[in-house]
Amino acid sequence: MTDRADAGIGRFETNSIHTGDCLRLMKEIPDSSIDLIITDPPFAIGFKARRGNYNRTGARVLDGYQEVDPSGYGAFTSAWITEAHRVLKETGSMYVFSGWNNLKYILIALDDAGFVTINHLIWKYQFGVFTKRKYVTSHYHIPFVVKDPKRYTFNKVEHYPEDVWVIRREYWTGKQKTPTKLPLALVSKILRFSSDEGDLVLDPFLGSGTVAVAAKGMNRRYLGFEVVEDYCDFAQTRLEEVETGSAQQEHMRDDGVPTA
Ligand SMILES: C[S@@+](CC[C@H](N)C(=O)[O-])C[C@H]1O[C@@H](n2cnc3c(N)ncnc32)[C@H](O)[C@@H]1O
Hints:
With 260 residues, the protein is an alpha/beta fold. Helix content is 23%, strand content 21%. The relative contact order is 0.19. Residues 21-23, 40-42, 65-66, 178, 180-182, 205, 207-208, 210, 225-228, 231 line the site of S-adenosylmethionine.
């Protein structure tokens, strides 16, 4: 899909997704305009989209995932995280997904940009890649950071919300998919805790569009960028299948089984 000009958020229409490099597109978002960023950037680990990993059939995985050269990962990470800090409102917060390999670059860039870390969440998933001489990696790191630790949204929707989340990846048997799709239950949980209805949620590395899909279903506004056109089209198709506000009570179970 192509960009659509609009006055909603700078030149971007509210509730829209765009094909392109987020390093360029984020510069067109006005200062202090986003309530929440949830994002899962490329990890610079030489990820190949068509590998039949994560227990998937390679042929059904959409090709084209854009990786980052490991030698430039520090500069790349610093560039987008600096922009993330600029576009977030003073009351805004951000959740960044990262594998352990290049986590240090994310943590350094978050500190350098002026973010304050509130929690360092761990997501435990199933389908880690099989290994012979080391442990199977089956978790992601999710730093939860804010601009101002005295003023950020935190809806305490659970009595005792622990920082290790065991949430199953979804089974998409027989369907086309992108290689690194997050579970809706995981993104929905973040939205429940860290946003309210009508808030504006950004994902600069949209992939298959999970953040935008969850936001739309939960009556949040969304903006998303993805450099691979096929992925952006795939995300747009998913978005068109979701009614605004239709998932208020959905995706509540952490085991990856949809509740509706
Ligand atoms: C880990 S995936 C995101 C998966 C997503 N959370 C989902 O649920 O499908 C990272 C995505 O960032 C995209 N990407 C890489 N570099 C980019 C850039 N400079 N601007 C925008 N997207 C980029 C990749 O093509 C990939 O789809």
